[in-house]
Design brief:
110 residues; 35% strand; 1 helix; alpha+beta; four-stranded antiparallel sheet; single chain
Length: 110
C-alpha cells in the first residue's frame, strides 16, 4: 500500500498561497471556493468543493479563497500527470477554436 502525502490549508480573502516547483501536484477544494492562477495559463481556474486542479508546470501558482475555504494539496500520484493536464487543456482550447471557426460564436443545437 502506498502512502498518499498531502497537506490541508485554510484560506481566507486576500491571503495567497504561493507554490512553485510543484508540477503535477493536485489541488482539491475541500470547502468553499478557490481561485487558481498558474504560470503560462491564459485563464484563471475557479474551484468549488470537490473540484480538482493539477498544477501544469513548475512556474509560480497562486491560490486564493473566494471568501473562506480549505484546499488539500497532494503530491503527484502518477508520473506525467502535469503533462496530461496541460495537453488536455490545449486540446480543449484547440477544439473550441475549431468550433468557433466552423460555426462562429453560435451554439450548436443538440
Amino acid at each position: 500500500m502506498t502512502k498518499q502525502h498531502h497537506a490541508d490549508y485554510e484560506l481566507s480573502d486576500k491571503h495567497l498561497l504561493r507554490m512553485s516547483n510543484a508540477a503535477g501536484h493536485r489541488i482539491e477544494c475541500v470547502s468553499g471556493r478557490a481561485l487558481i492562477t498558474a504560470y503560462g495559463e491564459r485563464i484563471d481556474f475557479s474551484l468549488r468543493q470537490g473540484n480538482v486542479f493539477i498544477i501544469p508546470n513548475d512556474g509560480l501558482t497562486l491560490i486564493e479563497a473566494i471568501g473562506n475555504g480549505r484546499i488539500r494539496v497532494r503530491q503527484p500520484a502518477l508520473p506525467g500527470q502535469a503533462w496530461l493536464a496541460r495537453t488536455g487543456r490545449k486540446a480543449s482550447d484547440a477544439l473550441g477554436r475549431l468550433r468557433r471557426g466552423l460555426f462562429g460564436d453560435n451554439k450548436i443545437a443538440s
